[in-house]
UniProtKB/TrEMBL annotation, chains A, B, C, D:
<dbReference type="GO" id="GO:0046949">
    <property type="term" value="P:fatty-acyl-CoA biosynthetic process"/>
</dbReference>
<dbReference type="GO" id="GO:0005759">
    <property type="term" value="C:mitochondrial matrix"/>
</dbReference>
<comment type="pathway">
    <text>Amino-acid metabolism; lysine degradation.</text>
</comment>
<keyword id="KW-0285">Flavoprotein</keyword>
<feature type="domain" description="Acyl-CoA dehydrogenase/oxidase C-terminal">
    <location>
        <begin position="281"/>
        <end position="421"/>
    </location>
</feature>
<protein>
    <recommendedName>
        <fullName>glutaryl-CoA dehydrogenase (ETF)</fullName>
        <ecNumber>1.3.8.6</ecNumber>
    </recommendedName>
</protein>
<dbReference type="InterPro" id="IPR009075">
    <property type="entry name" value="AcylCo_DH/oxidase_C"/>
</dbReference>
<dbReference type="InterPro" id="IPR036250">
    <property type="entry name" value="AcylCo_DH-like_C"/>
</dbReference>
<dbReference type="InterPro" id="IPR013786">
    <property type="entry name" value="AcylCoA_DH/ox_N"/>
</dbReference>
<dbReference type="GO" id="GO:0000062">
    <property type="term" value="F:fatty-acyl-CoA binding"/>
</dbReference>
<dbReference type="InterPro" id="IPR006091">
    <property type="entry name" value="Acyl-CoA_Oxase/DH_mid-dom"/>
</dbReference>
<dbReference type="InterPro" id="IPR046373">
    <property type="entry name" value="Acyl-CoA_Oxase/DH_mid-dom_sf"/>
</dbReference>
<feature type="domain" description="Acyl-CoA oxidase/dehydrogenase middle">
    <location>
        <begin position="166"/>
        <end position="262"/>
    </location>
</feature>
<dbReference type="InterPro" id="IPR052033">
    <property type="entry name" value="Glutaryl-CoA_DH_mitochondrial"/>
</dbReference>
<dbReference type="GO" id="GO:0033539">
    <property type="term" value="P:fatty acid beta-oxidation using acyl-CoA dehydrogenase"/>
</dbReference>
<dbReference type="InterPro" id="IPR037069">
    <property type="entry name" value="AcylCoA_DH/ox_N_sf"/>
</dbReference>
<keyword id="KW-0560">Oxidoreductase</keyword>
């Protein structure tokens, strides 16, 4: 692990006020005959599965998120206003590309990386999206597929948040089926050693403010990846209009990538990867992060609904004393606990070289589905006050719908898994 | 029925382009051996249950809503900007207080009134809320409980939308349990024939722009109703700040009613009704409207999801050809059809004097629950595009959550019905 | 309507102890200001939609079912022992083929017919299956497609229950897709005016005790219908082994129809109908009956769970006072009320010549789905006692699963409706 | 670990035909770029969390269950006929009380013990119930609370299946609320050193054939535990009638324990435990086993539904190629994988002394709920054939309902967890 991050983390570790594991409030008294008390914030003690280092990293992330991101979220979401500075802040703490070794990255485990995304998404899925795109999509693509020159030049800048990156796969007519993409690359007719990219990508997180664009395009019919650097694109060949009036993830910035004979040096093409393996490798990294992240958003909803239910009285009792309310809290706590265990298991398998993409489909699908279902139910606890954005759960609900949808809509993951279970594909109707 | 409304309606009725029942597109060819073809927009032919007059009124309302309201909704929702002019437009068409007889109201059936709310909510639940508050809450209160003088003076103005009305029951600390309200009335210590009202009502649709406030307050411990006229309130005794940054119903305007020794003439108190019977009578009228309205919002989601699924291709086929997509459409169509039948049945029973509040609880609860569940599922059909507000379903989803919550949260109606079914109350935990 | 049935019905009608509408127990006191009290057994007052005649027929059926069938059900189900005598009893009361005009049938409305099936299924879906096969499948087939000679000869005997009938469509390898049937008819090579039938039908209710078999077979590749009379079949050409050890519907008898060059006179072939229109016409009749019947089973579950919840005390209170219990009862009551309204609507449309098969798919699918879901939830109210068959709900649950599955599995109806809504078929994967 | 069991297990381990982990059929080919292929039988590779010893024990158990229990289940279930010999067989293999150290027990980990219950319940929940009662309830009670003399004398006989044990807590009027039990113990009025037990226990697995009864009764108002030995009870003081005509768990034997001044030696009373801590300790052991077991039943349903879907063709394709079918398989596989991880986590915590009862409530509740929900959905895959008991899923469905209900009904565990999360109890309505 990168020493500077470790140092920060350890310092926090030693600090008395460990935010998430020592709060007396989250534990009931142990039942007679048992040494251990139930901790509603971690009911199945997932923390036992994490190393001290991982816990320290989580604490660092949590502290940053609660102290620096949480106060900004309402205004950011209301105004669809993403603060570019956040990437720099995350970069300084070592949160970007955290599981990449070298290049100024923390070199932490996949679990640690997942815990970071969980803490960011506890605040907001949009903030987490901005980070995921930088880390799992842009940086992973460069790291896994780029030339050594690209890695040496770009990764440290991306890790520190000096450069912002994004990932251009989805097109207006091709969401769940990226293999049909229409964006093309062709050899530059006159300028040797260059390709020209043309086509449109949409729903691209970070695109309007990105410096680096990982773009997938068909070259002679084969999907290839390109690192497109905005600074090198002649005016008019690369435009990145923002998409406004979003119904969710309003604290992230989203846009299009419009390329019109945009020239890219040949050495910016990923040399060895062709087909969908390239983008899917990055997506799998992001998806595993989402499986952690969604649990963070769900836990925040649970925390807020529980607090509200304890404080709000109706018919002379706190709402928390109503059976129908308790059931909502219990269902959510259970799914959050299960989902965290499952994501952790896949992250461990990944670091051991024993994972496969279908496992990631399973935890991405299930954790997003359950986070969304439970967040919606927890929103009911707030009653009419749910309509005020200051109670936050409505924002998580809106966000989680999109989180369930992007990077593999739930049904698409069902069909990926269905194919793995049955050996038969059911994507294409007759 | 009020002749002017009838006239308008009949004209529309004769017009060739009946919007909702003759469109060829909504009918498949009949199956061999059957004269009737399936109409996905009205699968169980609820229209057979409506009179020609009711259908004509629905057409009038639908035309207005699609032509006048639909074009305004995106901007209104984005900016939380309710156009006060809408009440005047509705008033001109006879849509306000439509089932009141006399006082310039249309005197239509409860079914007709329900069909109007359905058409308005097909556009937006916020627009419907604004209308419901005017019609079912403010006007019904005046009509059922006010003195003849109040009726004669206020109803015609409310019916034409010249005056805007609202309904102050909910308080910051008392949502589901209005019997615990803290707002009080007391005799004016010096000015005879006046009461002084003090207290705060919140989440009041229309309050910031209302001229007339139906306010419920405790006088000597008994709940009484008052018609508070803004024009008569000395400065500082009545303030109505808007609540902004709402997570839904942003096309309606919502606020508080803050009363500080606000003087109200004794003749503005409802003379004969005490206790919760008064407000609950109005709420029951509104709730039945909501049971219709929610079906309108759901049908709009269905229409949009179906159109999208037919136009959007993935893996070489329209989405509509995928089994998982078809099931979503079918579930929604079924619940919309069932809910419309049930609401119609209760409306008919009401006009026949055979309804009771629990019936309304049943259809309010079920239709809101099912509208919300299905709208959420239909939103999935849109995939990533659901995140753009121009696809509208996300707005319905956000709205329907609040619609499910207000005027009796779903769980509260469960307990109302549970008490009716078992004879035992379960509202109050020990 | 057949006078004898009418007479019986009217007598019951006048009788003081109207079983289902006057029981004081099922009504709570009216809420202040309302004349009508909520009746948990008919929350949306579907009875208002029925004629006096229909109500009288329902009462007749209910009395018979509760007095004659209910006492037999436990032993019948335990031992998979269907009492053939039941058909005779039903025949005497006019319950068989009740909506056929003439031929000794009651000539009642489709609604009345539906109410009969509802009352029978209130006792047991297996008893209802035995009756439906006789009425909706065998008799409807003869009535709608048979020659006048067949009708005159067979219908009166079937109506009185002297002959037992069944319906052979499903084959071992062809359930949801009957168009692929393998049973064939060919002209008798030597005996003029005869066809030979060969093939196997399975899951045929009533087959082991049937006298008359409506069998669908391919003649020169076209599906044709035949009335096969057991008495005319030479030994060995028609065998009907029972299927034992069923997991549900154990009070009905189920078997196969094995035909090995079984000779059938040409005049027993239905002259004018070819293809799937024939069997589907009968199935649609049966399916509409099932939509009513499933509501009967659900209402019985509700009644039993409610009674148990009122009588059983835990933690010092009747279960009925628990919020989580009340919600289960309320959900079930709501779905039962909605389903009854919808089935009634389709039955009315059918009698008016305004129905189509997709409407029946909708109410069959939805009512079966909801009956099953709610019956399962109501079973939870019984706690451990659910494991005793004397509490009955477990039997309904097991039955309703099969009822949801036969005559169009829920998913198949989804695809039928999906095709009607979208115009695209999704039955056949690539 | 007991050497003899270990020896058996290791032998199996070395055997070539490892039943559950090496079957090529359950793995698809790895996706390009990944070494690991998805294994639908263990999608999240829970096996990585088990020691070689635990896997060996699972294999031993699985072999026995598939070879010895599976062939007996249909007849046992049909005829409600539990084969007492099974306890002896299980005893010989070391499966009884497997996580007890000493006394001839295997001394395996709690995870190993859970894997045994999973394999038994993969065949049938009734067989698992018979084993759980012996192991987790009777043996745990003796082991944790009995005198050394009782342990030395009874545990080895129970471990070998020579003695059959059961556990008497539930009473006819007290299911979810055992603290209200009516069974009493009093000092023998004449025979010193003896107590007299009177009262009735019901729904007691194994009672009709048990030799040893762990019975909980109130002595001077305090709950105490007694080891009642049938051989020592005078005739008429202890009767154990079987409960027949069960709707589920028919392969286990269930009955009552009726005690009428049944004399028990004072040394058979558990000396140090009073109150509900005693029975709840045993229940928690059993419940954790159930959390594993339910996953076994679910996996069997998945396996059978998948096989059926691959073999059964409709509309020209295997069912497994239908999207709606694939989704059912995927949902089930996901919940089985998640549930196994969660149960394993709690078992590990238990062995580390870090568990608490609420954790067990969580995994018992969730795993039972999800097993039941998914088993029901998988049953739909079978279509009409689900009605034949030879397809097995209907049996699992019926069993799992009871498994969800006993040892803490799902709602009760919700309230246990709700109390732990909120600090407020909601068991007792006003």
């Amino acid at each position: 692990m990168n020493p500077s991050v470790l140092r920060t983390a350890s310092r926090h570790l030693r600090a008395a006020n460990r935010l998430n594991r020592t709060s007396a409030a989250s534990r009931s008294a142990p039942i007679r005959g048992y040494k251990t008390a139930f901790n509603w914030e971690d009911p199945l003690v997932a923390s036992e599965l994490f190393t001290e280092e991982e816990l320290a990293i989580q604490d660092t992330a949590k502290r940053y998120c609660q102290e620096q991101l949480q106060p900004r979220i309402l205004e950011a979401y209301r105004n669809e206003n993403y603060d570019r500075q956040i990437l720099n802040e995350m970069g300084e703490l070592g949160l970007l590309g955290a599981n990449i070794k070298g290049y100024g990255c923390a070199g932490a485990s996949t679990v640690a990386s997942g815990l970071i995304t969980k803490e960011v998404e506890r605040v907001d899925s949009g903030y987490r999206s901005g980070m995921s795109v930088q880390s799992s999509l842009a940086m992973t693509a460069i790291h896994d597929f780029g030339t050594q020159e690209l890695k040496d030049r770009l990764l440290p800048e991306l890790a520190r948040g000096k450069l912002a990156g994004c990932f251009g796969l989805t097109e207006p007519n091709h969401g769940s089926d990226p293999g049909s993409m229409e964006t093309v690359a062709r050899e530059h007719p006159t300028k040797k050693g260059y390709y020209l990219l043309s086509g449109t990508k949409t729903w691209i997180t970070n695109s309007p403010l990105s410096d680096l664009f990982v773009v997938w395009a068909k070259l002679d019919g084969k999907i290839r990846g390109f690192a497109v650097e905005r600074s090198q694109c002649p005016e008019g060949t690369l435009t990145t209009p923002a998409i406004k009036n979003k119904t969710a993830l309003r604290a992230s910035i989203t846009g299009m990538i419009q390329m019109d004979d945009c020239p890219v040096p040949a050495e910016n093409m990923f040399p060895d990867v062709t087909g969908l393996v390239g983008p899917f490798t990055c997506l799998n990294s992001a998806r595993l992060g989402i499986a952690f992240g969604a649990m963070g958003a769900l836990e925040d909803c649970l925390d807020r609904a529980r607090t509200y239910a304890l404080e709000r009285k109706q018919f002379g009792s706190p709402l928390a004393k109503f059976q129908l309310i308790q059931k909502k809290l219990v269902d959510a706590a259970t799914d959050a606990a299960y989902g965290t265990l499952a994501a952790t298991q896949v992250a461990r398998l990944k670091d051991a070289g024993k994972s496969c993409p279908e496992m990631i489909s399973m935890v991405k699908r299930q954790n997003c589905d359950r986070a969304l279902v439970n967040a919606r139910i927890l929103q009911e606890v707030l009653g009419g006050n749910a309509a005020s954005d200051e109670y936050h759960i409505a924002r998580h609900v809106a966000n989680l719908f999109v989180v369930q949808t992007y990077e593999g809509q739930s049904d698409i993951h069902s069909l990926i898994l269905g194919r793995a279970i049955t050996g038969l594909q059911a994507f294409v109707p007759k």
